[in-house]
Amino acid sequence: MKISKKRKRTLIILAVSVLILALACIFAVLSIRGDWRFIIGEAIGIGRESIDFHKTELSSDVIMENFTLGQLLSKENVQFDQSLMLINKDYRLDGGFSPDLVDYKDSGLKVNKCIISSFSELSDHIYENFGQKLYIMSSYRTPEEQQETYDELGGDIASEKDASEHLTGLSLDVYISGYAGKAILKTEAGRYINSQCHKYGFIIRYPLFKKNITGISYEPWHIRYVGLPHSSIIYNKNITLEEYIESMEEGSFYVSGEYMITKQKGENFYLPSQAISYVISPDNTGSYIITMVL
Question: Which pLDDT belongs to residue 36?
Answer without folding.
Answer: 83
